[in-house]
Amino acid sequence: MTHKEESSQSGRQAAVSLSDEGQVRDVLADSILGLWDVVNNLTRLKPTRRERFRVTLFGSARIAPGTFSYEETKRCAAELTKLGCDIITGGGPGLMQAANEGAATDPDRSHSIGIRVDLPFEQEVNSFVGQAFEHRTFFTRLQQFVLQSDAFIVAPGGIGTALETLMAWQLLQVQHLVGTPLILVGEMWPGLVEWARASMISADPPLASEEDMNIPQCVKNADVAIAIIREYHSRWADEFGSGSNSEAGNYESSAGTEM
């Protein structure tokens, strides 16, 4: 046997019998962890220039068309579309549909994207989604939101919306996300931030920093959120030289109302 053949055999892992359940589990666990290493490595790759500014809107799946929150969310997305922003949602009903519907008012200027998760009781992708992505787990779905978003707007919502909000908040806290606004719209969110401030900062030792509490921007209505996005979009257009597809200079917001 040549030295080359000996080296090849010594580097080769021994076969594992399917009847050996313990070793089979170890092989599967090692393989899954190895796949996560591959995924984590690939997510390091970032485009040198993003073609379009993308805004993710999170919100309740339970709010019906025609309600105040639905119509305000739709209007917000439509106004962002005028700026040349793509709109990303969870792709489902309620306020997700409202945002996709708003983006669909001008399909030539905006892409309407839905990032779904497979649930046994969930409805299909709403009819206003132009491009849909399907995930089997919340973990990969949340990762796609992070990778594709330049800004987050959070409308009223339940536990799922709170999960998405806290994920973005935590990633901004540890600077895995930088320069990405997290805008919480409406009356329900300041209470969450104040609870975090009162409970975490007052602990001994403090469980968070005071500056962490300033990461979410709580605003009263959609027009304030639009104004903030307009400012960030303008900076992005200046940086990437993409202002040509924006009508930011022509934008005029409607009268301020709350979602």
- If helices are DSSP runs of H or I spanning 4 or more residues, what is the number of helices? 8
Q: State the CATH architecture of the largest domain.
A: 3-Layer(aba) Sandwich
* Helical coverage, percent range: 40-55%
CATH class descriptor name of the largest domain: Alpha Beta
Quote the CATH topology of the largest domain.
Answer: Rossmann fold
What oligomeric arrangement do these chains adopt?
single chain
List the domain count as a whole number: 2
Principal-axes shape call: globular
As a whole number of angstroms, the C-alpha radius of gyration is 22 Å
Q: What is the terminal separation in angstroms?
A: 76 Å
The H/E string reads HHEHEHEEHEHEHEH
* Poorly predicted regions: 3-11, 243-256
Q: Structural class of the helix and strand makeup?
A: alpha/beta
Organism: Thalassoglobus neptunius
GO molecular function, one term: AMP nucleosidase activity
GO cellular component, one term: cytosol
Protein name: AMP nucleosidase
